[in-house]
Design goal:
One of its GO terms (biological process) is mRNA cis splicing, via spliceosome. Belongs to the CACTIN family. Residues 43-52 have a biased composition (Polar residues). The protein is α+β, with helices and mostly antiparallel strands and 510 residues long. It has three domains: 1-47, no CATH class; 81-283, no CATH class; 355-503, no CATH class. The chain is built from 16 helices and eleven strands. The chain has helices at residues 3-10, 18-34, 61-68, 73-101, 107-115, 139-144, 148-164, 168-188, 193-199, 202-209, 214-229, 236-273, 275-283, 326-329, 338-349, 396-401; strands spanning 356-359, 362-363, 383-384, 386-391, 411-420, 432-436, 455-461, 469-474, 478-479, 489-493, 496-503. Strands 1, 3, 4, 5, 9, 10 and 11 form a seven-stranded antiparallel sheet that branches. The longest helix has 38 residues, at 236-273. The termini are far apart.
């Protein structure tokens, strides 16, 4: 068949003639000689060829940013650690907020809760409308209410927050508290000859530094450092002590500035909820018992009394104590000495740990008549601050019927009794306690129905001028081991009777 006809049937082009082929080859050779060797080759069959790819654009700012998103392994590790620190800090703040609202907070929780009103990094979904109404102690008052052991623990907690914090103002807040905590611990230590020599000029140091503002203190700090680094003949001990004192006053000034911001933020929150309380807070220093603001109503030349640490135990309301704490908050007509009040405030400042609740199950002491010494000394009930430890028991039954998402009911696991006897007439005889089981029941016997536990009375006995006091507790076998924080403790020291114990755990075998 003719090649042209076959091409027509198959949809091809007709084969070119010899002249056409010769002309095309000649034009192709001229084009090959003139073409760009890096460009596409000429298609002799006249088919569509790919266009030349344009050269890549030069690097721009957007491209550089995109390239910067690819991190090295070290950068990825640093990013992971930073994100983990942020998560830990966020969780610590959230737990502190919860403990303050539930009245079981430790001193570090109150310090963290103080900061939340101006913390720009907090989660706004964790806010509670009633947070501004919670009565709080000032940071300095919290530090002054603690002893050496509590300050040492608080110092570690503050360092943890300061290490994790990345907000500049928040870091300044924790740094100032670190300086004041260290100063407070130093003052509580017994002084040697050098310390007594420093104390002799303390009034002069206070007179110089107390009226100065933060800016003036920073300027004075530069001058003192320059003087210490110079070759002038100076009293080095005096100027070094002055510098140490200046850093403490500088921390106080920084903390006061931050606390003023906190007060302003709280007042703004209260204006819509409780205008009267907002005005009262604005006229004060921002905390109960603080000195009024200059020029406000009620301001006077007299310094304000330092607030009691018992505010921390009843922080949710300024007018009424929390449920179950009326025995602690209301002094009534009972004559509590200043020594008792100081011991009580110090114990309250420790707060309530997780798994603990305030324990107030006071009972009438059975068969007690008027003590023989009542005519000579006025009988009084001792003050106390007790805690009950609650938790879950994961025995075989509870493991079968419950899980960690749906836990079993909490049960009593132990008690912490702290009873204050600072004014004992005979201090050589320590107070004691004894267990009273009613209805002739003996130790180990049970008269309680199935599913409930026996109870008994624990009676605390001391000499004049204190009456006996009793509490109803669960009657189970005590664990007398010396485990850290959770072990048995029975002591009488510095006017405090401490009886801490937990119940033995019962393990069921198949």
């Amino acid at each position: 068949m003719d090649p042209g006809r076959q091409a027509m049937i198959n949809g091809w082009k007709s084969p070119p003639s010899q002249a056409d082929r010769d002309g095309r080859d000649r034009r192709g050779r001229d084009r090959d000689r003139d073409r760009d060797i890096t460009g596409p080759r000429f298609d002799s069959t006249n088919r569509i060829s790919k266009t030349q790819r344009p050269p890549p654009p030069k690097s721009t700012g957007a491209n550089s940013a995109a390239a910067g998103r690819y991190l090295t392994q070290d950068q990825q590790s640093e990013q992971f650690v930073a994100d983990e620190d942020k998560f830990v800090l966020r969780q610590a703040k959230k737990k502190a907020d919860i403990r303050v609202r539930e009245l079981r907070a430790k001193p570090i929780d109150y310090l963290a809760f103080n900061l939340r009103f101006i913390d720009t990094d907090r989660d706004i979904f964790d806010d509670d409308d009633a947070d501004a109404e919670i009565t709080l102690l000032g940071p300095e008052a919290i530090l002054e209410s603690l002893g050496e052991a509590q300050l040492r623990e608080l110092d570690e907690d503050i360092r943890s927050y300061h290490t994790l914090e990345f907000n500049k103002k928040n870091k300044e807040y924790w740094a100032a508290l670190l300086a004041l905590c260290a100063d407070r611990r130093q003052k509580l230590k017994p002084q040697g000859p050098e310390g007594r020599a420093v104390t002799s000029v303390a009034s002069d140091v206070d007179r110089i530094l107390s009226p100065k503002s933060l800016v003036q203190l920073e300027a004075l700090e530069k001058q003192i450092r320059a003087k210490l680094q110079s070759n002038e003949p100076i009293d080095t001990d005096y100027w070094e002590q002055l510098l140490k004192s200046l850093l403490v006053y500088k921390a106080k000034a920084t903390l006061k500035s931050i606390c003023d911001e906190i007060k302003t933020a709280r007042v703004d929150l209260l204006r819509t909820r409780d205008p009267e309380k907002a005005k009262e807070l604005e006229a004060s220093g921002g905390y109960p018992g603080a000195a009024p603001a200059p020029g406000s109503a009620g301001s006077s030349s007299k310094p304000a009394a330092r607030p009691s640490a018992s505010v921390m135990a009843s922080a949710s309301s300024s007018s009424a104590p929390p449920p179950g704490t009326a025995r602690f908050a209301a002094v009534g007509t009972e004559d509590f000495s200043q020594a008792t009040k100081a011991l009580y405030d110090r114990e309250v400042a420790k707060g309530i740990s997780e798994g603990e609740e305030i324990f107030t199950a006071e009972e009438e002491v059975p068969g007690v008549s008027k003590p023989l010494w009542a005519d000579k000394y006025r009988p009084r009930k001792p003050r106390y601050f007790n805690r009950v430890q609650m938790g879950y028991e994961w025995n075989k039954y509870n493991q079968t019927h419950y899980d960690h998402d749906h836990p079993p009911p909490k049960v009593v696991q132990g008690y912490k009794f702290n009873i204050f006897y600072p004014d004992l007439i005979d201090k050589t005889k320590a107070p004691t306690f004894k267990i009273i089981r009613e209805h002739g029941r003996r130790k180990g016997e049970s008269l309680a129905p199935a599913g409930s536990e026996d109870t008994c009375l624990i009676r605390f006995i001391a000499g004049p001028p204190y009456e006996d006091i009793a509490f109803r507790i669960v009657d189970r076998e005590w664990d007398y081991s010396a485990k850290k924080e959770r072990g048995f403790k029975s002591s009488f020291d510095k006017g405090i009777l401490q009886l801490h114990f937990q119940f033995k755990k019962i393990y069921y075998r198949k």
